[in-house]
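Ligand: magnesium ion. Inputs:
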Amino acid sequence: MPNNSILVIDDEEIMREILEALLTREGYAVRMASTAAEGLDLLRAAPFDAAIVDVMLPGMDGIAALNEIKKIDDDLPVLMITAFASVENAIAAMKRGAYDYITKPFKNDEVLVVLRNALAQRRLVAENTALKQNLQAHANRFSEIIGRSSRMRQVFDLIIQAAPSRTTILINGESGTGKELVARALHQNSARAEKPFITVNSGNLPPDLLESNLFGHVKGAFTGAVYPKKGLFELADKGTIFFDEIGNVPLETQAKLLRVIQEREFMRLGGIETIKVDVRIIAATNVDLRHMVEEGKFREDLFYRLHVITVQLPALRERKDDIPLLVQHFLEKYGQENNKRTLEVTPEALDLLFDYDWPGNVRELENVIERAVVLSTGPRIDVDLVPDHVRSSRRFQMPQFVLPPEGISFRDVITDFEKRLIESTLEAAGGVQKRAAELLHIKPTTLNEMIKRHDIRPRRKKSRGDDLDDDEEDAVVEM
Ligand SMILES: Nc1ncnc2c1ncn2[C@@H]1O[C@H](COP(=O)(O)OP(=O)(O)OP(=O)(O)O)[C@@H](O)[C@H]1O
Ligand SMILES: [Mg+2]
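Predicted complex:
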């Protein structure tokens, strides 16, 4: 039993003695006060886990004392002690937030049971608060990485678990899924956070240049090496080094990389001195490294060294429920940058963003929103600000035909189908027949003729800022 501390406020010396003996025997740390004022002083001086307060006190009575106690520590469980005659007082105390009351004369066990419950509840409240703070901290630590989908939650959990260690981490994901963000989050959530985070773009550098970047070189190591140079590994000492697109690292450099991972040491180009570093290595790739291993383009031993912990980032199309959140995030970001702070995306536009497959993932979505914000002239971002390729990607879906047992008229179904297709297309084309004809790959005259035949009524052209209403009086049909 941890040494819970209990404050007792009672003016009767005999009661104080009984309680002190009882509680001390139970292992509690007990402090005594004979007046409310004295008790409050003790409470202000040090935290307690529970208080036992007599209702009948000279000067400030127990109820008033309770009020004051709650001001000092709202969560402190307070047990009121009352003479049988003043149970009403005790009930009043309960209403003001006392934890419970005990009537005199009481049994020792009764006090102990109530106290134990009070302390248990106190612990729960404390744990709950801690948990909430934890959650908040959790959210804050990833403030840059937006996502609430279960896939992203798994990623967050993995980051939290993996960040503190020095284990090498491989981040796998398509382009634009946030690999670099995750690498930074891993660094930020580690003890290395204050130390350097160095990114290596292994991109298109020829091997010797890449190696001199990574490991540095001594003076005269090669033509042009007039000065000695520290490499990125040295610069990243005590911090994190991030290999963006590890798949681009040439085979010969891979061997040297393997050595650094295994031994945490290397030599500068042209040097003889072994340099030791303490770096955390994070690598990212959007290719299937295993496949590269099979093709002999990536060292198998390095692959396994990197593969200790893998963070697999989902493609955006695999976590579409995050799209609205991301849209909101980028809307705020670019709204601020462009001084358009109150922009909204219309539900129709959001629908389009939702239906698109996002091969370029979050980066592509971010670009689309940025473009829309920059181009917007009104308070809303509507379908017209969604780029054509995003709009037209909506997949056409044939209806599922369910035949009634008695059969159905072929001609009627086709006619109905034709009519609905034209109506939908007109809607997608904003009522512009010429555009609708293009979308259906037919001549405008053909479309016009069909519109007449099906008696399709023109719909009002949608324009930004207009409320959609069904008032068709001033409908326009543009050709
Ligand atoms: N979950 C996310 N929340 C907010 N922004 C994100 C998220 N994922 C990616 N982004 C943004 O998308 C862009 C691309 O992210 P990042 O550079 O981390 O992707 P990547 O996986 O490294 O892509 P590539 O393989 O092309 O280098 C950045 O602007 C980043 O801020
Ligand atoms: Mg990247």
